[in-house]
Design a protein that fits this description.
This protein has helices at about 10-15, 25-35, 65-75, 85-90, 90-105, 130-160, 190-200, 205-215, 220-225, 230-235, 245-255, 300-315, 360-365, 375-390, 395-425, 435-465, 470-480; strands at about 5-10, 45-55, 80, 110, 115-120, 170-175, 175-185, 265, 270, 280, 285-290, 335, 345-350, 355-360, 480-485, 490-495. It is an alpha/beta fold. The protein has four domains: about 5-155, Rossmann fold, CATH 3.40.50.1390; about 170-315, Alpha-Beta Complex (Hect, E3 ligase catalytic domain fold), CATH 3.90.1750; about 335-390 and about 475-495, no CATH class; about 395-465. Strand 13 (about 345-350) and strand 14 form a beta hairpin. The radius of gyration is 30 Å and the shape is elongated. The model is unreliable at about 125-130, about 235-240 and about 315-325 (pLDDT under 50).
């Protein structure tokens, strides 16, 4: 069976309609679907879509592409179709590596329709000169268009044009001028209220809880109202309907100088090396265009709120380390059974020594609906026991299954010989046709039963592994999500 993945991508430029391209997600989808339905073999395939909107082809770090490559790694995708190679990747060195090494090794067929490329028909896995040259041109094109776009955007920003995708909460893009911000009167008072609460002495956390208790609409929910769909849920596969205020969201609003009518840019840039790593610039290098759009709060109010936040920050000593969530292999996989949000595993330390890992749902906490969740060690023990009972196989058991499989192959060899012998008996008139057909059908039934068991053993050996301890790699191999409540583990969704 063909497990077919369709990959679709549009760049930031195409998403923001800054060019006159017709190469939309829908147009790519139509081209690919037409190709699939015109192929007798491909149209029977299991089809899944992977989409990246607003991502450059020169970077390989894209949510849709990451999910697709994970499915390839897990052996769940054996065919990929794109409109053309530049949609998949513009870096000619990496593209060549996928065509020449990775996809052939993984048994993945790769089709780029407009390039006339199908790896199943290629002799050298896409390493021919014309394919390499086309990928090289794509790479140079990507670099050239990136340089030109950077220059054009810089000129536009210096003119006070808002070229980013989503306006800050409290603003909308002017329908008559896509580069101009206008006040969103429906939620502008919410922004003023947030500054007021901070100035009145409420902490970021307290402010967020007040907003939640009063049902103040969040930025994500407001975008959904405007667009008619939840772009965050579409992009991040979120199943959570209710969005809430958290401290970080409040901080971003209070720290955003745009609310004073000032357009600020050059806060950061993306490196052309290191896979597009974001480089944050010091404040002295920021560029400001004053009185660029209508303010929502006065400069004095903005300055006072930020002064208060900075004074509090000096009194709080904490350190975020890279190992914040590394102490439990379950940290990336556990969700709240009540709301669906990711459960947090946060460390408590004393003198640099780990004392405990706190397990809690931040979403429920902010809504003051939190319940006490199980200890992380109890969760780890239960998941380990579950995985071991379902998937662990030791050396003796593996040898036993392989021996059983060999015995079944030998039986089918004997059945084949028996079928040939009975056919000779029929041909030489030793048995009737009816007797031969009955014996033949019995042999075929036995062969099919043996084949089914052989395949079942294959699947068992493929899925099984040596599970001696609970590691992130083991959890990632077998588990998609774990849902928990105050009672413990409610359900486990496997890969």
């Amino acid at each position: 069976m063909i497990n077919l993945a369709i990959y679709l991508r549009i760049s930031v430029l195409e998403k923001e309609n800054l060019s006159h391209t017709d190469d939309t997600i829908n147009s790519q989808r139509n081209i690919i679907k037409s190709f699939i339905f015109g192929d007798p073999e491909l149209k029977k395939a299991n089809i899944e879509e992977y989409i990246d909107e607003g991502y450059s082809g020169s970077t390989t770090s894209r949510p849709g592409l990451d999910k697709l490559l994970l499915k390839v790694k897990q052996g769940k995708v054996n065919c990929i179709i794109v409109k053309d190679m530049s949609r998949f990747m513009r870096n000619y060195i990496e593209m060549g590596d996928y065509l020449e090494n990775i996809f052939p090794f993984m048994g993945v067929r790769f089709i780029a329709i407009n390039d006339g490329y199908d790896s199943s028909n290629e002799v050298q896995n896409g390493t021919e000169l014309d394919i390499q040259f086309k990928n090289l041109l794509n790479d140079y094109y990507s670099r050239d268009i990136s340089e030109k776009m950077t220059t054009a955007l810089l000129v536009a920003k210096k003119q006070g044009k808002y070229t980013s995708g989503v306006p800050p909460y409290g603003y909308l893009k002017d329908p008559e001028d896509n580069y101009k911000l206008i006040v969103d009167e429906k939620v502008a008072d919410n922004v003023r209220y947030i500054f007021q609460l901070i100035i009145e002495g409420h902490s970021l956390n307290e402010t967020a809880k007040i907003l939640n208790s009063e049902g103040v609409i969040t930025a994500r929910a407001r975008r959904k109202e405007i667009k008619g769909y939840d772009s965050y849920a579409t992009r991040h596969e979120s199943t959570v309907e209710q969005t809430i205020w958290v401290a970080g969201m409040v901080r971003r609003i209070v720290n955003n100088e745009a609310y004073t009518g000032t357009f600020v840019f050059n806060k950061s840039t993306k490196s052309k090396l290191d896979g597009g790593k974001v480089i944050h610039h010091p404040e002295k290098d920021w560029v400001r265009v004053y009185d660029n759009h209508e303010p929502i709060v006065d400069k004095e109010i903005y300055d006072e709120a930020n002064r208060i936040l900075k004074s509090r920050k000096k009194n709080i000593k904490f350190k975020w380390g890279k190992s914040k969530y590394e102490n439990s292999p379950l940290a990336s996989f556990v969700r709240c059974n009540k709301c669906g949000y990711k459960i947090r595993f946060s460390k408590s330390t004393n003198g640099g020594k780990l004392t405990s890992i706190n397990v809690y749902c931040h979403h429920c906490r902010m809504l003051e609906q939190e319940e006490k969740l199980p200890h992380h060690k109890d969760l780890e023990r239960e998941v380990f026991e579950d995985l071991k009972s379902k998937f662990h196989i030791d050396k003796t058991e593996k040898e036993k299954l392989l021996a059983e499989q060999k015995e079944l192959y030998d039986k089918n060899d004997q059945l084949l010989k028996k079928k040939r012998l009975e056919f000779e008996n029929y041909k030489f008139g030793k048995i009737s046709r009816e007797d031969f057909m009955e014996i033949k059908n019995q042999i075929q039934d036995s062969e099919e039963e043996n084949k089914k068991r052989i395949q079942a053993i294959d699947e068992e050996l493929k899925q099984a592994g040596s599970i001696e301890s609970l590691t992130k790699e083991i959890v990632e191999k077998y588990i998609d999500r774990i849902y928990i409540s105050g009672k413990g583990i409610e359900r486990i969704e496997y890969q």
